[in-house]
Design a protein that fits this description.
Elements: H1 3-9, E1 14-19, H2 28-37, E2 43-46, H3 58-67, E3 72-77, H4 83-95, E4 100-104, H5 125-136, E5 139-143, E6 149-151, E7 159-164, H6 171-183, E8 188-193, H7 197-209, E9 216-221, H8 226-235, H9 243-247, H10 255-273, E10 279-283, H11 290-296
Parallel strand pairs: 1-2, 1-10, 2-3, 3-4, 4-7, 7-8, 8-9, 9-10
Antiparallel strand pairs: 5-6
Helix pairs in contact: 4-5, 7-10, 10-11
Length: 299
């Protein structure tokens, strides 16, 4: 059992972090960031070709984190691989000691830096969760010439995660999607960025009404200033930073002061959400040194 699974199943308020692999082979900055988080979070997500921008393999980065004593959460997007490759990579991850896997459909190619790449989307995030559940039962998604399931030589056991967008304009579709992911085998859920505790509580109440028991970690993208917040409001669907939060960054020009304020805002939102969720997922986007600052301010 992974530390993440143990923490969530014990009922502890659980905090996870996130790092992005480099565009190249120098893992120095990535590992430094993970080291800063190591004693403050239970596990660290490793993004998988995030926003369709080519980067070093998530799986390879996860292995390096394990070597440095950091428990990773392998993100897997469905955009770039068919079901053969996805299942193969899942088995490979398990063989290399990776237990936590986060299933994501993936941003479209048009968002990234390889416009000529061909998207796959053979499976979506629900299909990938179902594939993991099948592998855990000892078979893959295929069958032999007689139509019998292909049996595995040894079976993996993952701690399977998913994502949701609690502050989307329409809440009901998000609740329905999360319910489907739970039915497909999701054992934990990390959310997209939340900046309004009231909206988040409304979403969680709807999940409770629907009987969804999957532990939810409220997601926080660490703001790097008012300009970033305004950009997210304009271009990131399902994310809305209140004007009152944006105003808190007015007049702050020194990076240290902005980081201090960003940590304060992040911790406050988490504290306001703690009563209705099981943890928090911190996405520092390179400001890894803010993670200890945030965690130290949690109630």
């Amino acid at each position: 059992m992974s530390r993440l699974q143990e923490s969530l199943e014990s009922g502890k308020f659980t905090v996870t972090g996130e790092v992005g692999p480099p565009k190249g082979v120098d893992l120095g900055h990535c590992l430094e960031g993970a080291e800063l988080m190591k004693d403050k979070v239970v596990a660290v997500n490793v993004t998988d070709i995030q926003t369709a921008v080519m980067r070093l393999s998530s799986l390879a980065t996860c292995v390096k984190l394990v070597e440095h004593g950091v428990e990773p959460i392998l993100q897997m997007v469905c955009r770039d691989r068919n079901r053969l490759a996805l299942q193969s990579d899942l088995l490979g991850a398990y063989a290399l000691g990776i237990r936590n896997v986060l299933s994501i459909t993936g941003d479209h190619i048009v968002m990234g830096d390889h416009k000529g790449a061909k998207p796959v989307y053979d499976l979506d995030s629900v299909g990938l969760l179902q594939a993991m559940s099948l592998l855990e039962k000892g078979t893959d998604m295929g069958c032999d010439m007689k139509g019998s399931p292909n049996e595995l030589e040894g079976t993996p056991e993952f701690f399977k995660g998913c994502v949701t967008t609690p502050c989307a304009e329409e809440i009901e579709p998000q609740v329905i999607k999360l319910d489907k992911k739970a039915e497909a085998g999701a054992q934990f859920c990390q959310t997209q960025a939340v900046y309004d505790a009231g909206q988040f509580e409304t979403f969680m109440n709807e999940c409770e009404k629907r009987g969804i028991k999957t532990p939810v970690l409220v997601g926080i993208v660490v703001l790097k200033g008012g300009g970033m917040a305004k950009y997210m409001n304009r271009f990131v669907p399902g994310v809305q930073v209140p004007q009152s939060v944006i105003d808190e960054f007015d007049g702050l020009t020194d990076e240290g002061d902005v980081k201090k304020k960003a940590a304060e805002v992040s911790a406050r939102i988490i504290n306001d959400c703690k009563h209705c969720c099981q943890g928090a997922h911190l996405m520092p986007l390179g400001w890894d040194d803010t993670i200890p600052m945030i965690v130290e301010q949690l109630d």
